[in-house]
């Protein structure tokens, strides 16, 4: 698979400039869960935006005069300004993660959205901790299903000499990952289409991934993408290489459904692996959906599989 250099077109360059403007204004915003976001925006006085955080954090509508003309111009050039008469909205948000600013979709509701989830910061910290504890060098790394690129950038920041590949099947995800790599000043990150290791090819010292794990409308098994990566990992890990895989696990009757599936798929691969919960209770609103009617909670988990020397 050919890797493309992080070259920016006019729209992407404008989005980077927009992020730089926010950095210069000392903008910060910690994205919350969609349920919390909705509750805060329902409060009296929060219906419209009056500044940067309202527009680019809370996704509130605004009109002329709220933002500097230069910022509105950059939004327009970047293609992230939605206009409906005198009411405007940003179609992106900017959120803090790993001491940097990341751009992502303003709403998780569209099918093509590439959203900064409630777990993004937790996963970036976990990747950083894994790299800090790793004895063997990281010369080549990949983040499969990279989303906004936060995990790939976390790797590149701590191993600036490594070749880091961010792969995703979504054009919108690759755009955000490309822009975020520019914002983070991590030129070692490259981008390519693909959502499985076999799409990318080659071997890696570090593989990172968080495939979609919620039960989708097609009612496929929730972990089919994660277990596919487990099935391919042994063929793509270099000696002493490690896979860091994040997923959500439905806990039914006290039993972790993903851990059981992972054990089955890793048997016979020769990979040593560890498994732990990072957060015992995420996406609680999904417990009301038919796919999780038997689950008592959904946990964010991290599986690390390691290849020994050959």
Automatic annotation (TrEMBL):
The keyword Methyltransferase applies. InterPro entries: RsmC/RlmG (IPR046977), SAM-dependent_MTases_sf (IPR029063), Small_mtfrase_dom (IPR007848). CDD domains: AdoMet_MTases. GO terms for molecular function: S-adenosylmethionine-dependent methyltransferase activity. It comes from the Bacteria. One of its GO terms (biological process) is methylation. Residues 128-245 form the Methyltransferase small domain. Keywords: Methyltransferase, Transferase. Pfam families: MTS. PANTHER family: RIBOSOMAL RNA SMALL SUBUNIT METHYLTRANSFERASE C. This is Methyltransferase small domain-containing protein. It comes from Paractinoplanes atraurantiacus. The lineage of its organism: Bacteria, Bacillati, Actinomycetota, Actinomycetes, Micromonosporales.
């Amino acid at each position: 698979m050919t890797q493309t250099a992080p070259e920016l077109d006019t729209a992407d360059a404008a989005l980077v400039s927009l992020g730089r403007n926010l950095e210069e204004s000392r903008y910060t915003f910690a994205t919350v869960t969609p349920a919390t976001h909705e509750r805060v925006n329902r409060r009296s006085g929060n219906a419209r935006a009056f500044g940067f955080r309202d527009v680019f954090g809370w996704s509130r509508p605004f009109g002329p005069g709220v933002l500097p003309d230069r910022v509105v111009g950059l939004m327009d050039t970047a293609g992230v300004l939605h206009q409906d008469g005198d009411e405007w909205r940003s179609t992106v948000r900017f959120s803090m993660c790993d001491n940097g600013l990341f751009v992502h979709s303003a709403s998780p509701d569209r099918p093509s959205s590439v959203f900064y989830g409630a777990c993004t910061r937790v996963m970036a910290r976990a990747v950083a901790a894994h790299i800090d504890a790793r004895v063997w060098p990281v010369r080549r790394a990949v983040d499969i299903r990279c989303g906004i690129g936060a995990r790939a950038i976390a790797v590149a920041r701590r191993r600036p000499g490594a070749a880091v590949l961010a792969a995703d099947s979504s054009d919108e995800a690759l755009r955000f990952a490309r822009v975020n790599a520019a914002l983070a000043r991590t030129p070692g990150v490259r981008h390519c289409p693909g959502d499985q290791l076999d799409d990318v090819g080659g071997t890696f010292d570090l593989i990172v991934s968080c495939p979609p794990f919620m039960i989708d409308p097609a009612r496929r098994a929730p972990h089919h993408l994660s277990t596919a990566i487990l099935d391919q990992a042994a063929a793509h890990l270099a000696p002493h290489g490690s896979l860091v895989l994040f997923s959500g696990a439905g806990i039914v009757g006290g039993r972790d459904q993903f851990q059981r599936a992972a054990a089955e798929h890793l048997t016979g691969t020769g990979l040593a692996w560890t498994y732990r919960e990072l957060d015992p209770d995420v996406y609680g609103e999904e417990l009301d959906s038919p796919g999780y009617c038997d689950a008592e909670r959904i946990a964010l988990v991290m599986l690390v599989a390691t290849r020994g020397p050959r």
